[in-house]
Design brief:
The protein is elongated, with a radius of gyration of 30 Å. 72% of the residues lie in helices and 0% in strands. By secondary structure, it is an all-alpha fold. The chain has 15 helices and no strands. The chain has helices spanning 9-15, 17-36, 46-95, 107-133, 140-144, 146-155, 159-162, 165-169, 175-181, 187-204, 210-235, 240-276, 285-295, 301-322, 335-349.
Amino acid sequence: MYIKRIFPIKGMLKWTKREIFLFILIGTIPVILFDIVGLKWLNVPWLPLGVFGTAISFLISFKNNASYDRLWEARKIWGGIVNTSRSWTIMVKDFIDNTHAKTLLSADELQAVKKELVHRHIAWLTALRYQMRGDKPWETHLKKDKQNAAFRENHYLVFEDRIPIREAIKSYISEEEFEEIFSKGNKPSQLLGLQSKRLKELMNKGFIEDFRHMEMMNILVEFYTLQGKSERIKNFPYPRQYATLNYIFVWIFIFLLPFGIMQSFEAIGSHIMEELSEHSSSTNLGHIIQEFIANHFVWFSIPFSALLSWVFHTMEKIGENTENPFEGGVNDIPITDLSRGIEIDIRQLINDKDIPEPYIWKNDIVM
């Protein structure tokens, strides 16, 4: 997540520099054929092209709105995880005691039980964020893109790509639990299952009263719900038929655009020539320069078509890079930072020791 008010223009241009050069080339070839080779018939009427461009703009808006909805829903889900994690910790802190216990525990032993439940929850957060950062077939092309890969390498760090999940999760659970969850598929689900099993054991021993046990189980059900919502966004992409056709239509428009505006720019040049014909002197340097510009005014269509192409393509590219809010892009939900913030918060609630510091992020990009 980029946290400055304005995304750097330099960074945006650097991100799209290959496309900019391509748009200039696409705009130059038709002008050469039109002005130098003399193929004056080589143009497309602006009216149908304008209608096509309007349709493309609606399609891009539809995609970007859908991508933003996916991003915002993901943010609400992880906001729910933050709040429910605090609720879970408060229940662990206050509900587990010796009031109905069959065998009393010392204060240190009770603290160890609470620490176990909180640390297992942090393990769940860790497993969930690693699961969300995993690659899906529809996401890998963004990571393989040279511009995205170079920007990712030089400007920000995705911890899930650098630190193995086994290393990240091992300190929060016992060796037995570690082996158990890594022998099965869905690790976050297994960790919640272990939490449920442990709560039942504590209830049977009298450390949690029945009603309190039910309330804590409701919290675990809520964690399952939030996990399922995250998995729904992660495992179901923006429909590929819309994304593919949108991409194709944008490029068709980009290729046709130079042919649609050349004649208009030549007409502007012809109008300038009419104005110049009324000058009293046609031999001074200023008149000669203006006449040359008027005769070749069609060349100004190149930067204009490149600019329009850049706008359409960049908006389409932004939608494409926003539609998967967990893949580890600049505009994704900062689940790594949220997880560390939750960990610090809930471990402080139970007066835990050796609490880690918040992550320090570079270049105003929080992951």
